[in-house]
Amino acid sequence: MRKLIEATFVSLDGVIGSPERWALQLWGAEHRVQATRQLDSYEAFLFGRVTYEKFAASWPQIKGDPYYDTINRMPKFVASNTLKTTTWNTTVLSGDVVEAVRALKEQPGKDIIKYGGGGLDRTLIPHQLIDEFQIYVFPLTVGQGVRLFEGVNPDDLRLALTGTKALANGIVQLTYARQ
Q1: Fewest 10 Å CB contacts: which of 1, 17, 27, 102?
Q2: Global pTM?
């Protein structure tokens, strides 16, 4: 069975919302090389509708960069009961998202990556469908915004630290696996 791995940016004060406003100032060459290398482990992307719409609006137009070229080639899935059409090599998962994600994980192949946290997490976490969290802690505070694991029942989220990596720019990658 394939694993579903979530990668998300978080500020020191726990904010994950709108990382395009605060995280990009620290996104450097070392992080880009690591992120590009990690894409080799994944076969597809899973998005919630909000993250998909943000990314699909700009990422497909970026060409000639190994990171974006790899993402643009990969198949994508978006969980949504409102989207009717998609672009960017994307399939809509509508109806019972839990069963749709479970079916995706049961298919043979490499793991599935999910960027960002939010509403889709509140659906997947209680069903133990996210196998690993790669949390990139940025050395800054944001003050307000959507928080990591906001609205998630703590009883549904039992994790064990399986890895750490400090980047030269102060970002720390914490990897947690579901217990």
Answers
A1: 1
A2: 0.94
